Amino acid sequence: MTGRTHDLAAFTALNYLFVTQPLVHTSIATVFVTIGANMLGGVAPDIDQATAQFWQRLPAGSIISRLITPILGSHRMISHSFLGIFIASLLSRWILDALKNVLIVDMNLVWIGFMIGFISHIVMDIISKEGEPLLFPLPFKFGIPPFRFLRLTTGGMMEKTIIFPSLMLFNGYLIYTNYHKFLDFLKIYIK
Ligand SMILES: [Zn+2]
Questions:
Q1: Angle CA(117)–CA(76)–CA(132) in degrees, nearest 5?
Q2: What spacing in Å lies between the alpha carbon of 24 and ligand 1's midpoint?
Q3: What's the gap in Å between 121 CA and the centre of ligand 1?
Q4: Any transmembrane segments, and where (predicted)?
């Protein structure tokens, strides 16, 4: 999947959580930082590519990426596994805890936003040709459907004409069917 699709998938997951969970009243800063963290989380598993969007979104990212990517191994290794999700959840928690004195936002929500994005990436990549080493360090790659030729090519026709528009439609559907919840949410900030 391309970064664009991952961004949209991350947002879709966050949107889904928003409409299915009780409304939370939080600061506008928290809302923006949570959406930002969600988008960062949505591309974070691709940190093992030196060119990854994740790095482009961070200051001095290209320099840091050249130091870190060789440690993570080739593309789609530990970062696309259950172990990777676990490590990302600890690391992000730790980074956010360190930031909580300089950034006055609800770090719990920011963390949830990041992890929702991260997990949405793993869910989306499972339908791509490369498959994912979910049980890393065990050397098996998984994909849905199980036959490689039935799965998607990154940036290919299927992704552009089916997956991306479907996600857009689903977001539209979620907003349309939960219109009042969105209004209630916005009312907190627009007075
Ligand atoms: Zn990926």
A1: 80
A2: 31
A3: 6
A4: 77-96, 108-127, 162-179
